[in-house]
Amino acid sequence: MQAINAIRMGGFDVLPFVEGGKGVAISNGVSAGHWAKAGGVGTFSAVNPDSYDEAGNFIPQVYHSRTRRERHEELIAYAIKGAVTQAKRAWDITGGKGRIHANILWEMGGAERIVDAVLEHAKGLIHGITCGAGMPYRLSDIATKFNVHYYPIISSARAFNALWRRAYSKAASLLGGVVYEDPWLAGGHNGLSNSEDPTKPEDPYPRVKALREQMRVYGLDETPIIMAGGVWWLEEWEHWIDNPELGPIAFQFGTRPLLTQESPIGNIWKQRLLTLKEGDVFLNRFSPTGFYSSAVNNNFIQELRGRSERQIAYSTEPVGEHTAAYGVGPRKRMVYMAPADLERANAWEAQGFTDTLRTPDNTLVFVTPDKAQEIVQDQAECMGCLSTCRFSNWSQHEADFSTGKRADPRSFCIQKTLQTAAHDDRPEALENNLMFSGHNAYRFAKDPFYSNGFIPTVKQLVERIATGR
Length: 469
Hints:
By secondary structure, this protein is an alpha/beta fold. The chain has two domains: 7-278 and 444-466, Aldolase class I (TIM Barrel); 299-431, no CATH class. It is built from 13 helices and 18 strands.
């Protein structure tokens, strides 16, 4: 393995190792501070991070307001306070000498307001803003306002070209790097386009090569590209390092920092990571964002799968093959479905899936009474954590804060489940909530570095990565 040299990023020399930001309290100031202290770029998440009282106790994010609009304001206040807190924690750990980035999702609720307030209240503590999950055109405007570098997350040269031509060309000097996130292998939300097949992963090399070629058209020869998704041992990427076709390359690690002593996730989650097998993490499209995402296949995902499979098209009047009458809800209001579907509905009812919920696509989803009550309650308690949510029909862009569409019961409240996974360290909590992960998580069980359940410090992990393995 050839030597790993420092790289120039955001005006400073750092090891080409970037901690990937994982939202809702998973990448925090402690993990980011230690990663930066070890010589790389630490990243904390500004997506609903934790905050603490004067005694240092975690403050649960409980919402007290009656309306979604008022709860949305509570959410924004929590996010700002938490992000400033995590920035200060990271700064304190590095003694002000490490490089710290804040990660945001462009499609999170109140994204611009939150990042604006965080950068205002944490001046000098944050050196870069990483942003994905959408097309963050205004990211460069925010970076210019606060004179920090920005790092868009994209999954194709085409996406970067659109961002550059529309906005980034006006703030070229502050473009610290471009994160190429593999849409098939990265954890969390993924940037697959409608023209790409989720079942057919593509080799990232030609895609990153195309990105560099596009960047060179705009004079960005020395702006680093940060490869994210599927990175484990650097010896597997040796042909990328010091490669003139690709130019300056850094590597982002999102999954591996989960299994460190400084990682804030609970011990049950860490032990689960050590047991995952290949195929236990897969792409799905249940997220209320509408994006594909990568998560561990547990009871939570299996229930969502079952929910979508127990789905029948209907019409409010008999038309075409929809000739069989079926009574919906307590009042048994009649809808019509195909006779074969009526047989399926009767079979599901016999199994206990007796409640039906209507979707925006004129289908009925069959669930148990308890699950139906949970879904309706979660929808009613929406706090607008996304700019647009298909599960609750919230939209911060519309005058009435609604998409105008029926809420989709095939999805879920992402804020609720991620908060629970982050803070409830019981086996049943992790089994029944969303566990985001990159597809390489099965390698924890195969990598000798983690033999006998060894969990390294961040410093030990960074040192291990620097060896190439």
